[in-house]
Amino acid sequence: MKFGILVNEGPYQHQASDSAYQFVVAALAKGHEIYRVFFYNDGVNNANRLVEPPQDDRNITQQWSKLAADHGIDLVVCVAAALRRGIKEEILAPGFRISGLGQLVEAGIKADRLVVFGD
Amino acid sequence: MSGMEENEGGTDKVKRFMFLNRKAPYGTIYALESLEVVLIGAAFDQNVSMVFVDDGVYQLKKGQQTKDIGQKNFSPTYRALEDYDIEKLYVEQESLEARGLTADDLLVPVEVLPSAALGALMEEQDVVLSF
Is the predicted ipTM greater than 0.90, yes or no? Predict the structure, then answer.
């Protein structure tokens, strides 16, 4: 199955991003395809390469970047939501790209299922 | 918006998109940012409906005044949805009643449905976006 993923919460404050990540890893392991992961609302903060959690904690942003590198997953950050929150090209972690909300709607159209992770 | 261009002239079947709005219009940004997706999504000519449940019903309340909280009153946008061919607005009956509201308190004409009917409607959707 081809999945689209929507992440609506930032890292750490909510479990949404962790759950989305775990879902994607599990889906890939089962041979499913991930059409795109779209980051919206505070979810755009997942793309901030400046995040620096304590060393004994997971680095959520780096986990997403590694996933993109290993599996070619398309990680898209909403431009309007990102600008509102100071997420710009210069602080974007590897594997993420900034684009418009049209990419979310398109994921809804192209994927077999769009799964929303939020509050 | 490169995604929009990609879809134009495409042969994908029209999908049923439901936007599920659960939060009060102010206090968090969910209502405003949900509306932004709805407006962009309208350009894709999909079958779009909006549902308002829980405190989400307040998004459609008449007479919103936001000056004193220093935020923009975006509620007039709901009246413009018609111009985007978004005409299917559903409000959960239980949520309205729990807040002492009726359809007369709302900015736009809506269809008030009990929870079970909304559930059935949700079942028919291809995509449900929850905010």
Answer: yes
Across the A:B interface, residue pairs with CB atoms under 8 Å apart total 68
Average pLDDT of the residues in B52-73: 98
- Suggest the residue from B2, B20, B40 to mutate for an interface test with chain A (most A CBs closer than 10 A): B40
Burial of B90-112, coded b for 16+ CB within 10 Å and e otherwise, reads: bbbbbbbeeeebeeeebbbebeb
Q: Which two tokens stand for residue A101?
A: 């909300």
Supply the Cα-derived Rg of chain A in whole angstroms. Answer: 13
Q: What CATH code is assigned to B14-130?
A: 3.40.1260.10
Two tokens, residue A54: 């304590």
Domains identified in chain A and CATH numbers: 2-117 (3.40.1260.10)
* Chain B residues closer than 8 Å to A40 by CB: 33, 37
Delimit the domains of chain B by residue range: 14-130
